[in-house]
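User: Please fill in residues for this 273-position structure.
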């Protein structure tokens, strides 16, 4: 089953639902990629720091799904920011994955203390012009960081991948993204299961005959976000894809919004360097 697509501001299309490879052991990654593609996913979220780009590439090559049907994202890690090192990091990612280019390259974190994200962004712009990457975006950027790169280069990232789940709903960033034509992509979308027992989630799950995880993933789609849950099990991958036959009502969406708690599971981008 193919998933719906979101239009990117550079004319490309992003499958809205994908799967992530954080903490997937390198020796299991090719299998997970093959199983994900067989289940119907067409978006894979990788990163150099996950240590499994080679497995990502192996999974792609050993799957019957054609390369041009799959959207592959990877990311430049923090200690590779800067012109020369970002160029080298991108070359190394492409070599590990075994592709001449990827669909989307992200700056993994802004790392404000390093003071290099603007230079890194300019390097990604150049790499896009050279055809090494099809689209370029960012991750964990705050409004102020986005304003710097957009103001200085005029190039708007196609997306910003940020921590987003029912206990951290990111209303301010989502509104800024919407105004700028930036897709919001949710990482740790299930919020480490902290909301699986919450009443608004349970209520939809009972009404629609869905699991709490499916309800939360559906909520992301209805917010207009792209979402990249992780599961290393074929059954989990299939469960997380099976969210296109029900929807939350307006009242149910409103009930979900009451779960906001300003609670991060990961680092604060202001402090992570
Ligand atoms: P997630 O929210 O997808 O949760 C993963 C956990 O939930 C795993 O323990 C998994 O076994 C469990 N799970 C998955 N499906 C389930 C289901 N249907 N029912 C019950 N439990 C289920 O978390 P994540 O991996 O932290 O985030 C998803 C992806 O986001 C990552 O794999 C990675 O690609 C990306 N990510 C990016 C950043 C970043 O800084 N850009 C940071 C973290 C994660």
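Assistant: Residues filled in for all 273 positions:
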């Amino acid at each position: 089953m193919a998933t719906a697509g979101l239009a990117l501001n550079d004319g490309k299309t992003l499958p809205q639902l994908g799967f992530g490879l954080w903490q997937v052991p390198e020796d299991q990654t090719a299998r997970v990629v093959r199983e994900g593609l067989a289940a119907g996913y067409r978006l894979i979220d990788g990163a150099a720091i996950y240590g499994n780009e080679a497995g990502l590439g192996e999974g792609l090559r050993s799957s019957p799904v054609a390369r041009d049907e799959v959207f592959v994202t990877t990311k430049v890690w923090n200690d590779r920011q800067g012109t020369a090192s970002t160029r080298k990091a991108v070359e190394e990612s492409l070599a590990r994955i075994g592709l001449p280019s990827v669909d989307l390259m992200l700056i993994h974190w802004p790392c404000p203390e390093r003071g290099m994200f603007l230079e890194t962004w300019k390097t990604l712009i150049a790499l896009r012009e050279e055809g090494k990457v099809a689209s370029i975006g960012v991750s964990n950027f705050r409004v102020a960081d986005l304003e710097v790169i957009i103001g200085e280069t005029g190039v708007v990232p196609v997306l910003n991948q940020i921590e987003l789940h029912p206990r951290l709903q990111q209303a301010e960033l989502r509104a800024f993204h919407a105004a700028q034509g930036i897709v919001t992509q949710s990482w740790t979308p299930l919020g480490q299961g902290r909301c699986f027992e919450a009443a608004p989630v349970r209520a939809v799950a009972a009404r629609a005959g869905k699991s709490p995880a499916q309800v939360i993933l559906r909520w992301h789609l209805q917010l207009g976000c792209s979402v990249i849950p992780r599961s290393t099990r074929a059954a989990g991958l299939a469960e997380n894809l099976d969210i296109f036959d029900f929807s939350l009502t307006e009242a149910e969406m409103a009930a979900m919004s009451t779960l906001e708690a300003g609670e991060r599971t990961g680092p604060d981008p202001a402090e992570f360097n």
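For context: Residues 20-22, 45, 108, 139-140, 161, 187-190, 193, 211, 213, 228-231, 236, 239-240, 266 surround nicotinamide-adenine-dinucleotide (CB under 6 Å).
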